[in-house]
Amino acid sequence: MTDPLLFHPHRYDPAHLDETSRRLLRATVDWFESRGKQALVDSYNHQEWYADFLAFAAKEGLFATFLTPAADAGDDPDKRWDTARNAALSEILGFYGLGYWYTWQVTVLGLGPVWQSGNTAARARAAALLDEGHVMAFGLSERPHGADIYSTDLLLTPDADGGFRATGGKYYIGNGNVAGLVSVFGRRADVEGPEGYVFFAADSRHPAYRLVRNVVNAQMYVSEFRLENYPVRAEDVLHTGPAAFDAALNTVNVGKFNLCTASIGICEHAMYEAVTHAHQRILYGRRVTDFPHVRRELTDAYARLVAMKLFSDRAVDYFRSAGPDDRRYLLFNPMTKMKVTTEGEKVIDLLWDVIAAKGFEADTYFDKAAKDIRGLPKLEGTVHVNLALILKFMPNYLFRPAAHPPVPTRQDPADDEFLFRQGPARGLGAIRFHDWRAAYDAHAHLPNVARFREQADGLTALLAAHAPDEAQQRDLDFLLTVGQLFALVVYGQLILEQAELTGLDADLLDEIFDLLVRDFSAYATDLHGKAATTEAQAAWALAHLRRPVVDADRTARVWQRVVALSGAYEMHP
């Protein structure tokens, strides 16, 4: 049986998309499947650069079609920046391996500062490079500072021709070995403060661009490079001053959303493999899947994976419907970067607990998934950074709802041009949200949704009566646990909205909220144990521990969906 909620390569047909998008996505799946599993695992194990995939993408015009905004597309009606189809491709690439997703993802980031720029020459050059099959790179982080762009040491010195000479190094830059265009962030040597920031376009093939090494032990190339007196012409400059800083952060808003779909794709492939192995294995005269703890772990893994997809799919709608007066996507973006990707780690851990030693075998996909899933929550902003960002939205989200027009499902073939005119990267605390309670009210008949709603209401009561004091607000260890509790409320809201839009099976939805009730109780227990927690806050934590509503028949019905994955998909040899 094919599960309609999970990506299945042999039956994949994204009928909700236009004909060209469907053809390119299907061609991508067919390329991987015809290449086969042996080539997939061998190239990963031998750390072979994925030149064959890049050649396929160039031949099909895959990146050029998906990553060129309509304004730069000339007469090609199929080129646009469409978050719905970009998310679909991201999931497919994650399904076959992080390296294939990574070269796509870094190209997305490298293009961000270009498509936000008013430099028409640079935009035309980027569009032409995409047409030629090139990939791009995002030269932001540096070895001493990571992604702390306030502290960049790459310096630009004005020259006599109206341009600059750039000198300095960048570190952890994907595609830096082959990128036709590298968007590089630096600062002027002669201007202090934010006015000195510069974003410019460099070419990895230039003699003054020195590739130092690959800094990771992997199939992908994550470069360290240095610019030595690199000539930056006036036509290479993308942004200057505070606009360069904004371009960096707004690029992350656009590009890092793809982390969630990569995590989903990895988990889907791993789940097919793990359930098939477990169900077909006999231990002590019984199927492994007959053991109660195995059923619970696999059911939890499946429910967590479906929840990841529901949240991410709904977040796409908010991205595509965003505008100057609706920036709710700026909360849902760090949620996808932090919450969805850490849920992916939990899915893999649950599956690994079941298949045990099988998860180490070199000829499995799971071996790769177990290694690569760890990286996604740690790319361009750790869990801690994203949780701290999420906290900025908490007061308005919980206590000051505002009216917004309903956001529909957005799978239409539109160009998401607002993402490249987001404006200044500030004012997050002023963003207003629609009432989160409405989604919960619509599903109050489900026992575990109702129980989780009790916990969510309890969080608002905690913050109203026993809000963090001044010392606690400086204690990030304490605040991050509060952030985890808040994130669960946001996570549940979008899951419920997507469940309503898609008519999700009520058993499965209640099983997902069984997990959320347990997760909230776990974070409440963590809050209880913090050194900074007051007696009143600790008492609240204990009072809001809940057991989920157990329904053995419901769980058994969900289990039938899980066990049906056994043998449902095997990658072509």
From TrEMBL:
Output a single Gene Ontology CC term carried by this record: plasma membrane
Q: Which UniProt keywords apply?
A: FAD, Flavoprotein
| A GO term, aspect molecular function | acyl-CoA dehydrogenase activity
Domain annotation Acyl-CoA dehydrogenase/oxidase C-terminal: ranges: 245-392
Which SUPFAM superfamilies would you find in this protein's record? Acyl-CoA dehydrogenase C-terminal domain-like, Acyl-CoA dehydrogenase NM domain-like
Q: Does the keyword DNA damage apply?
A: no
Asked if the record carries the keyword Flavoprotein, the reply is yes
Cited Pfam families = Acyl-CoA_dh_1
The record's family statement is: Belongs to the acyl-CoA dehydrogenase family.
PANTHER family on file: ACYL-COA DEHYDROGENASE, ACYL-COA DEHYDROGENASE FADE4-RELATED
Protein known as? Acyl-CoA dehydrogenase
Native species: Micromonospora chersina
Which taxonomic lineage is given here? Bacteria, Bacillati, Actinomycetota, Actinomycetes, Micromonosporales
